[in-house]
Amino acid sequence: MASHLVFFVFMLIAAIVPAIRATGKEFIVGDEAGWGLGFDYQAWAYGKKFHVGDKLVFQYYPGAHNVFKVNETGFQNCIRPPATEALTTGNDTIVLATPGRKWYICSVGQHCKKGMKLFLTVLPQAVKSTPAPYATPYTPQGV
């Protein structure tokens, strides 16, 4: 009976651990500086590993800035997409749903041209290997 309980607890833990990673890691863009002028976002992103399922949180004063997801051309030339695509709450969360390159800009005034833009590469979801469970051989009662 005790072996069944141990097996159940182990299986429960094995089911929960992958779900914890599936929620992803949260990155506050710019850390304490947040999303604003006068910060090097490429230096901030350098060395960080972003995976599918992770979240970017852009924090700023509403009305002072915005966030647009753009393509590489939009990033290089600071081209703003239609205004309906703007994130403007001041606490915008973007879930990194697919692997690949991602580009973000602020389109207020000349903010993008002054360096308020972020480029990063999203890696496939990190898979953490778990050790194989210890298998106890089944012995039928009365044998």
From TrEMBL:
Q: Which Gene3D superfamilies match?
A: Cupredoxins - blue copper proteins (2.60.40.420)
Which residues, if any, are the signal sequence? 1-22
Residue ranges annotated for the Phytocyanin domain, each copy included: 25-124
Entry keyword set: Signal
Superkingdom of source = Eukaryota
Q: What is this protein called?
A: Phytocyanin domain-containing protein
UniProt organism field: Hevea brasiliensis
